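Let us practice reading a record.
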Amino acid sequence: MDAADRVDPAFGEADLSNCEKEQIHLAGSIQPHGALIVVDESDDNVVMASENAGAFLGIPGNTAGRRIKDLPGNLFERIEPHLKKVLNPVSSAFRCTVGEKAESFDATVHRPKDSVFVVEFEPVFECFDATEELERFLRQIQVASSLRDLCNDVAEIYKEITEFDRVMVYRFDDEGHGEVYTERKEPDLESFEGNWYPASDIPQIARRLYLLNRVRVLADVNYEPVRIVPQVWPITGDQLDMSLCVLRSMSPIHIQYLKNMGVASTLVISVIVDGELWGLVACHNYSPRNVSYEMRTVCALIAESVSTRIAALQGFDQAEALLSVRHLEQRLAEAVSREGDWRSALFGTSSSLLKPLDASGAALLYEDNVLTIGDVPSTQEIKRLGDWLDERPRQDVFATSSLSRDRAEFANLTAIASGLLATPISDNKGEYLMWLRPERVQTVTWGGNPLKPVEFGDSPNDLSPRRSFAKWHQLVEGTSDSWTNKHLTAAKLIAASVSDVIVQFRAVQMLLAQDQLKTVSIQLADSFQPIVVANDQGKIIQTNDSFLRLAGASPGKFLSIKDLERLFDESEYVQKKLNGLIKYRRRWVGEATIKSLDGNFTPVVVRADTVFVGDRLLGYVFHFTNLTHSRKAESARREFQKTVGADQRLSNLEFGVSSSILYRNLLTTIISNAQLAALEITDDVDVARIPERLDHIRRSAERSAELLEHAIWHARDDK
């Protein structure tokens, strides 16, 4: 059989028991309310087309094999300017006339791969213009002060715009299960708010497509698919990748799923945060319903703004966690100065350690000792937890809300330690900070039995996705309240502070107890924090490997404190600070730049302290913190404000429409929203991630501007 004639299964080999294999992006067919052609860009020939293309467009005979220049109407004239764009992943839109009767169509064009573009045609809808409302919606989203308020606003906004019977904001948890976080619906419909749906209801391949094609429409669940012919690319034998197609047929399994729910049509919008699928806005209608390009564009713009606002709200959580930890850091420093130890600051009051993480108990495993506060297991059980954590791959933060599920032998701890959050405080085994939470028995409401997503009848033909969506209540035992991002952030920050204090405290211990010098020196040498220790004469008695890597030097290169001067780029400033440290016993805390012996420049924070016993000077401890990632984050913020603030995209356009001021205001709102979110993403504990997070927001702003540009093109075409 010739490659061009071979017909592969439109949705692969999957069935209901194995839907993860369903290749839904290779659908091989479209929904019948539109038509599709595939054009070879090298010669403008139509090489593939939906079977209804000729009849739908009013073109006699086959469209395949014809050049788009030769098709009746102004298609080629209208499409040509758009072909200069990338067209992946954001499609471009325009209005054109096609066919002998010169009927008007809304068209979208994208490139699934080089040298090929896909054009999809839809009927022209009645004019939908939400431009003025859109600006109001974007500002409403921008000022939402909590996730709950934001999602309530989002459900209201989409219900007003789309007029679908039901609008749900659907949020995924860490395991991929989805919760109907909020909804707006017609009064006579049963409420789904608060229902959970298992991760298996949305296969991973569908989740990946939600990242690519962010607005999806199913106009009528009872449609008959229209095949694309030929089914494979004539030259390569490849099927058409329909990931970005507006008209792509839906999975038969998904369609049956919707039929079982009584849903007739859907509009689904992706919510992407930090490049990941945070959730969906799912709009359901109980009668067939199509959605115009203009409405889809408005929905996409709002979704981008929502994604940016969620990122900003997460930044608020980071900032709140940081504030509570900064108070704890101050108490740690005061405790070391006043009492020569830091542990009293952690365990002096419950609010210091428990409140930032909403924990009921906490424990510190340090140098084979255990300190606790609140409700905790026995010392022996805590040490067993430490041994178990040592067996696991090292993580900056380990969190579970069901310890007994992760390790059955800890089932006896359920009453006081169902939830465990732990962070290592040093590179040594068995040294952890732990926070604990008790079991909280709760009832989870599922939209149908999550253990029975597929039902079997008397024959294979009777296979069906879940038929019943009646609320199914599950009593959940052996779990605690979940740890949130705010708690994880607070734990990281506290662990980092304690780790810094421990490094310095161990340096002091070395000066105070010469008989323990060997043990403590090894601990310092293995520390990931750069450390220099000098005696009371300024002679350097310890430099660890982290410092030597920072300095680009070999052991023994630095003999005294004065030798450190040549390590810094700002010699006059450093000389002054060292003189103040040695002569006047002034503590040195400040930023400087290390010019390593191998020629690298590294920004650092220097903390240099004098160590006393009574009035007697024992020596000096230097501690260095690398600021490379922080500086990159600052640079990324500046670059972000510079690039996002530019509105070159619109300044080069000739609007030609009376609403140009509205479009400019919309762009201003989009940029303002992005800049505000960027300002709020400033206290991420993982500083190295800040440039990446800013880049996601920048891309979202650019995507919004591009969508807006397409809307302007479309509006101009409509005049």
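A brief commentary: The radius of gyration is 31 Å.
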